[in-house]
Design a protein that fits this description.
single chain, five-stranded antiparallel β-sheet, 20 helices, 21 strands, about 45% helix, binds ligand C2E, binds calcium ion
Amino acid sequence: MHDTMESRIQAKSFPATAPGSEPRIPVAVRSILLAALEIGSQGVALFDPSDLLVYANEAFRNGWSVEPNTYPTFAEMMRLCHANGVGPVVETDNIESWIAAANRRRRFGPPLRAFEVDLCDGRWFWITERRLDSGWILLIGQDITSLKHTEETLRTARDTAVRDSLTDPLTQLANRRSAMNRLDWQFGGGKPFSLALIDLDHFKRINDSFGHAVGDEVLRLLGQKLEALRARNCMPARLAGDEFAVIGPPGADPDWFAELLRGFMQDAAQTTRFHDHLIQPQLSIGIARAGVDGKDVRSLLASADAALYEVKRGGRSAVSVYTKAMGDERLARAELRRELSDALANDEFVPFFQPIVDLGTGATVGYEMLARWKHPTHGLITPDRFIPLMMSSGGLMELTENLIERAGREIAGLPAGGRIAFNISVQQLKRDMLLPMLERLGEKGGIPLDRLEMEITEEALLENPLEAARAVEAVRKLGLRIVLDDFGIGFSSLHHLREMHFDGVKLDRSFLKKLDERRNQRFLAALIHLANELNLETVVEGIEDEKTRDIVAGLGARFGQGYLFGRPAPAQTPV
Ligand code: C2E
Ligand code: CA
Ligand code: CA
């Protein structure tokens, strides 16, 4: 067969064998070369000037379904392939015009061409086509189907990875990275726009009380509602856990944006059923304007965050728009935060004491210890300024330990049976933190542990009720008394009173407001009665005048605390 083919090639006077141009290749060697072509994986074919196939190796014949010992023209070969469904993908359905166009390229296009062809059966070929001066065409084809598949797999993997890296998997909203890109881009555009930071109030509580599946559902629904803001040309995003953002459209009126978010907040606050639990998600929203309230992404975020902080401080569930005062406050906070760790090391925190008195006899029965920061330049700072900062930056436990130790040295003349009450915050309500601290205090031999009273707010109990209950029990075993602080203002005080063992409750001073109104008085009476019935010692906080003291005493409360009996003061004064 090879000989036949060779003779055909010779008959057409293939130029490589033209006399004088190149050394003649002996017939035997030529046979070897042809045999080598036969076993190669690349398809090799040769068409003569009349486009008749004069040679095709096995790979080529297999690839293009050309029967052995047949020598069709290029056009005939393509027609046959097309009919068998293995030809090149032809965009129009007309194979003849495709062949005509291909032949124009083959005969009159550049003499050396390399290109990809995709075939109707899904295969891909890489073709190198060489037209010789004499009009012969040498065609080499390589099957690159698997290469193509790998390429395709890589491309989709890359597209998916890019998409995933910019999307929050839970809500399908844009993620933080994507939001930051967008903010950069909008700053680049130079048009003013607004940014809203959104915080889902008490999300941790939802998660802890109803489980993570419910928590996820709440986030997902919020995500869906935020997604709808796209219709107003806003870009919603989930930045982290329960933090979301909405980037307003470039050039939009800030008042329009604030109004849009107020409406959104109300809409989001609808009570919804999540897995059998009725939940009313509430949002805190802080807004800042790019350009005006922040010159770059960082400062814009900081301003929106300052506005958000303002909402949270004011009791949450509101929209606040950034003002300069909020920015100043933020800077002051940041400054204090930086100074906090030095303050601990420099012993700048001191305990103040406020007497707790027996309303019947007027005798002081103990003191509540309240922290003060003796700041070297700002003077005395009250705990509402630094306790929240320490909650995020740490140091609370060290503070409590220092203060109790100091109290032991300073309050030498504690009345017989007198107690020192101290406050602890959410983060401190853990056994592995509280117990070692109290045991250390016990060993140091300051105030005997059974003279200490631990005040816990309900807020602290809610964060992790199980761990809190265990911590409280362990502390009680050490001999301390446990008191529920700010009783009555949380939303499940009664539940905690029933489930946990307290020695007393402190009624928040908000219950003393407008006591001349009968309804308010009856309310206070009911709370005192409840505590008495449960055998809990009651301390009513915030008594500022004698009239209030008399009413409170008349309603059956045993103990009181407030400016009337003494303001919080350093040890020398009260003792
Ligand atoms: P709290 O435990 O409810 O403490 C009572 C607060 O009411 C104190 O504010 C006290 O000065 C104030 N107060 C007392 N009597 C009256 C009154 O007659 N009228 C009015 N208007 N206010 C009165 P302070 O000292 O600013 O403490 C604020 C909060 O900071 C405390 O609330 C407590 O939760 C927290 N705190 C204070 N010291 C510490 C501490 O060492 N550790 C922790 N974790 N929290 C502390
Ligand atoms: Ca307290
Ligand atoms: Ca209190």
